[in-house]
Amino acid sequence: MKANRPRHPRALAALALAALLPAACAQQDAGTQRLEILTDEWQLAGFENSLDLSGIAAANKTQVLVGSDEMFHVQPGVIEASKHRIESKRPIALPVKSAGKKQEVDIEGVAYSSADHAYYVVGSHGLGKKKGDFQADRHSIYQVPVDPATGQVKKDGIRRTSLLPWLEKTPQVKPHLKQPLQQNGLNIEGLTWSGGKLWFGLRAPNQDGRGLVLELAPDQLFGGGKPGPMRVHEITIAKGRGIREIAAVQDGFILLTGNASAEASKKIPITAAPGPDTRFELLYWDGRDTKATNLGRLPENGGKGEALLVLDDAAGHVDLLVIFDGLPGGEPLGVRIHR
Predict the structure, then answer these.
(1) CA gap 139, 96 in Å, rounded
(2) How many Å apart are CA 107 and CA 193, to the nearest integer?
(3) Handedness of CA 326, 33, 240, 252 (dihedral sign)
(4) Can you give the residue ranges of every domain in the chain?
(5) Contact indicator for 14, 36 with CB cutoff of 8 Å
(6) What's the pLDDT tens digit per position in 250-297?
(7) Quick one: which of 209, 211, 222 has its CA closest to 163?
(8) Domain 9-338: assigned CATH number
(9) What is the pLDDT of residues 137-173, one digit of tens each?
(10) Which of 119, 114, 115, 111 has its CA nearest to residue 92?
């Protein structure tokens, strides 16, 4: 009898996931979605602050832009699909207001607009997680222009503004502004572009089992218009859960969810978090309804689900990379969602 060979780690993850998925997800029926862990091992190579990668988007099949929540730079990258590798290029500094040793935008989302030929890069618009302090650069959103012919970032012409004036005029979120993340304070963690609009996924607040996505046109932000209320989408998710990333696909959006509240700190010892931030799930949302379909739970790997990159958006499936905070190079996990 031959000795049993050790299983590939991705295969073990797939088996673990299968045990977690509800029975209803086991069959691929008409109108259902099913999550599958892929065995291709992707690598994000050469990126600075690789333990803190927090946002990624692609301008085309080969050019991406990556953000880290511990930097005030963005990092272009090149996709080598045949090698399952994304290679970093030289970082590009974003304009910031603060001075001194600690300059940080707290980048939480990156999106690409094919209409504007530009990336959008958003800070959390929340207080510092450990001290609960206000930092102006966290309340930033940037427009980063791209050469439409090549998809490469143009270093000149980067523009900065803030969502704060719009958030202050949006009644559903205004009470949560400048409040600690441990206590349901507003915190943007996801960003995507679809149908000419930017869509912001909020980690917090969770309002009694309702997660929030905010919608706003880029030209309202960067066209010199007068700030007004943002459009708010309420999505039914579990109480205490928040949207950690949002990615547009042809028939709606994929949401990545985790704890809405941050863990306690010395300065903020009380938290609304229901437990350790180790459970991360993917949901499908059509962009209109208040309901989202749970696609399944991601296998635990010691990191925190942080960013999504759409690799293929086909008629029968969507292929994604899930990037994890706290793991070297984001430890990308390939996922297929069957339509």
Answers:
(1) 10
(2) 16
(3) positive
(4) 9-338
(5) yes
(6) 999 999 999 998 888 988 998 888 889 999 999 999 999 999 999 999
(7) 222
(8) 2.120.10
(9) 999 999 999 999 999 999 999 999 999 999 999 999 9
(10) 119
